[in-house]
């Protein structure tokens, strides 16, 4: 795979990365570093808001991890503190933490999706701008945002159609078994259905603040456009959406 081009300005300021004790943490970190980000990693139980604030970070990324948002240490407090001040991105558990911070609920997904690929239908905004829809993404989750409780300040940016998985479960994102359908082979003729409440929310963004989350794993080799998603995030400089 050809190395991605660094994002201009990505190395200006610190990208604080909250590690929720996940085996994929350094896969995500590596993607950001390949894009030129100056990443500082902190375990979710080993840093305070005051210590993070003293760094004057340029961005906040909240990692995947086991359990529910309530189990994610400082993650939710960090999102509350930095939302509106700097760009914030949550991945998997980090996405779920964003949902709960702003008043939504995270519930059982109904179908356990560990190492399965799905078509992700999106609205060509936020981290998805310029990417094809649908795109293929690798999912590792058994919890999901509850659409019935999603607050009006959060907009659904992408979703997967319930039951529309493309591959059997695998052990890790880098496992060859998760490459049964590589990004280059993603189908081009899958219709984009209208979202229904029984579809699974795969991404949200705040209506005003530069806060966005994705449920799937962009850093997986089986996800299409992962570097492009993270690059789009790194290009942001404001805590609010820029018109």
UniProtKB/TrEMBL annotation:
Q: Name one GO biological process term.
A: L-tryptophan biosynthetic process
Keyword annotations for this protein, in alphabetical order, are: Amino-acid biosynthesis, Aromatic amino acid biosynthesis, Glutamine amidotransferase, Tryptophan biosynthesis
Q: Organism source for this protein?
A: Cafeteria roenbergensis (Marine flagellate)
Which residue numbers delimit the Glutamine amidotransferase domain?
A: 17-163, 195-235
Q: What class of enzyme is it?
A: lyase
Q: In which pathway does it act?
A: Amino-acid biosynthesis; L-tryptophan biosynthesis; L-tryptophan from chorismate: step 1/5
Q: Which Pfam families match?
A: GATase
Instruction: Give a yes or no for keyword Cell wall biogenesis/degradation in this entry.
Output: no
Query: Which CDD domains does the annotation name?
Result: GATase1_Anthranilate_Synthase
**The EC number(s) this enzyme carries:** 4.1.3.27
State how it assembles. Answer: Tetramer of two components I and two components II.
Protein name according to UniProt: Anthranilate synthase component 2
One GO CC annotation, please? cytosol
Q: What are the protein's GO molecular function terms?
A: anthranilate synthase activity
């Amino acid at each position: 795979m050809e190395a991605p081009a660094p994002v201009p300005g990505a190395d200006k300021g610190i990208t604080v990365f909250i590690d929720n004790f996940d085996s994929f943490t350094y896969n995500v970190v590596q993607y950001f570093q390949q894009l030129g980000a100056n990443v500082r990693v902190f375990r979710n139980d080993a840093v305070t808001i005051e210590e993070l604030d003293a760094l004057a970070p340029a961005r906040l990324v909240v990692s995947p991890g086991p359990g529910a948002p309530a189990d994610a240490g400082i993650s939710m407090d960090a999102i509350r503190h930095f939302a509106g001040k700097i760009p914030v991105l949550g991945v998997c558990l980090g996405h779920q933490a964003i949902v709960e911070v702003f008043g939504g609920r995270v519930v059982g997904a109904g179908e356990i999706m560990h190492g399965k690929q799905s078509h992700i239908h999106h609205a060509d905004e936020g981290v998805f701008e310029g990417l094809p829809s649908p795109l293929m993404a690798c999912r590792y989750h058994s919890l999901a945002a509850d659409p019935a409780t999603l607050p009006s300040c959060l907009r659904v940016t992408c979703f997967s159609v319930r039951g529309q998985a493309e591959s059997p479960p695998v052990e890790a994102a880098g496992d060859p078994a998760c490459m049964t359908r590589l990004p280059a082979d993603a189908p081009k003729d899958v219709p984009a259905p209208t979202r229904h409440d029984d579809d699974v929310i795969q991404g949200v963004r705040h209506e005003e603040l530069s806060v966005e989350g994705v449920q799937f794993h962009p850093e997986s080799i089986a996800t299409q456009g992962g570097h492009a998603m993270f690059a789009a995030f790194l290009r942001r400089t404001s805590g609010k959406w820029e018109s």
